[in-house]
């Protein structure tokens, strides 16, 4: 069994930052859920603040430096991705968008992605649906149903009567990411299938198709 490569991208600018804190909590929950499924997990957290100058240089020159190239390869080679950004002017940060502008449009095709964001007030929570989902939809990623938004009052709070608490949302989103990751790994081509040489048939790759109903069933409460 190959290890599951779990990569988180944090676009927080401060140190420490609420964005990195949320990324760490999501990584911990996702790793625990994957390990409960019998997977061995390799974790990598990429801090975009450390790559800001590299990203800017790439946008100007069109050539990524060694550090940025390695980070992009880690993201595109991941089995599952967690993407977390602070909210600036009602959307994701420019640093966050610039990093994903560097990635080839088809490099995240079919990759399970959990989107998350942090902000000062709950009124910015729609950033998950009006900005982040369209971005990863354009990149053809497989975004899990539950996005996680953490406002200032969510840290250590009990939430309100209409929304689940932050730990509940983290747990639910991590479970969905683990389920999507398992399904995506099962659906990968098993490798070229050899046919009798005398028939002149070519090698072909066959992928196991996981029915969408089965994928949804794995997300229901009480499973896993």
UniProtKB/TrEMBL annotation:
<dbReference type="InterPro" id="IPR023932">
    <property type="entry name" value="CE1759_FMN_reduct"/>
</dbReference>
<dbReference type="InterPro" id="IPR051814">
    <property type="entry name" value="NAD(P)H-dep_FMN_reductase"/>
</dbReference>
<keyword id="KW-0560">Oxidoreductase</keyword>
<feature type="compositionally biased region" description="Low complexity">
    <location>
        <begin position="185"/>
        <end position="198"/>
    </location>
</feature>
<dbReference type="InterPro" id="IPR029039">
    <property type="entry name" value="Flavoprotein-like_sf"/>
</dbReference>
<keyword id="KW-0288">FMN</keyword>
<dbReference type="InterPro" id="IPR005025">
    <property type="entry name" value="FMN_Rdtase-like_dom"/>
</dbReference>
<protein>
    <submittedName>
        <fullName>Oxidoreductase</fullName>
    </submittedName>
</protein>
<feature type="region of interest" description="Disordered">
    <location>
        <begin position="185"/>
        <end position="224"/>
    </location>
</feature>
<dbReference type="GO" id="GO:0016491">
    <property type="term" value="F:oxidoreductase activity"/>
</dbReference>
<feature type="domain" description="NADPH-dependent FMN reductase-like">
    <location>
        <begin position="5"/>
        <end position="155"/>
    </location>
</feature>
<keyword id="KW-0285">Flavoprotein</keyword>
<dbReference type="Pfam" id="PF03358">
    <property type="entry name" value="FMN_red"/>
</dbReference>
């Amino acid at each position: 069994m190959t290890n599951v490569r779990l990569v988180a991208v944090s676009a927080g600018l401060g140190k420490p930052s609420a964005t990195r804190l949320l990324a760490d909590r999501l990584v911990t929950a996702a790793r625990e859920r994957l390990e409960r499924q019998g997977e061995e997990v390799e974790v990598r957290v990429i801090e975009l603040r450390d790559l800001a100058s590299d990203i800017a240089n790439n946008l100007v020159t069109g050539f990524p430096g060694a550090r940025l190239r390695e980070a992009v390869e880690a993201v595109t080679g991941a089995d599952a991705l967690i993407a977390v950004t602070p909210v600036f002017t009602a959307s994701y940060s420019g640093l966050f968008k610039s990093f994903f502008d560097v990635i080839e449009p088809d490099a995240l095709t079919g990759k399970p992605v959990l989107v998350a964001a942090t902000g000062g007030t709950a009124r910015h929570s729609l950033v998950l649906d009006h900005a982040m989902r369209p971005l990863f939809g354009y990149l053809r990623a497989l975004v899990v149903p539950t996005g996680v938004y953490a406002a200032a009052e969510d840290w250590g709070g009990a939430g309100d009567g209409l929304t689940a608490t932050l730990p509940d949302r983290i747990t639910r989103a991590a479970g969905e990411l683990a389920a999507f990751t398992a399904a995506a790994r099962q659906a990968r081509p098993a490798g070229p299938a050899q046919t009798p040489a005398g028939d002149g048939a070519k090698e072909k790759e066959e992928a196991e198709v996981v029915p969408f109903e089965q994928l949804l069933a794995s997300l229901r409460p009480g499973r896993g």
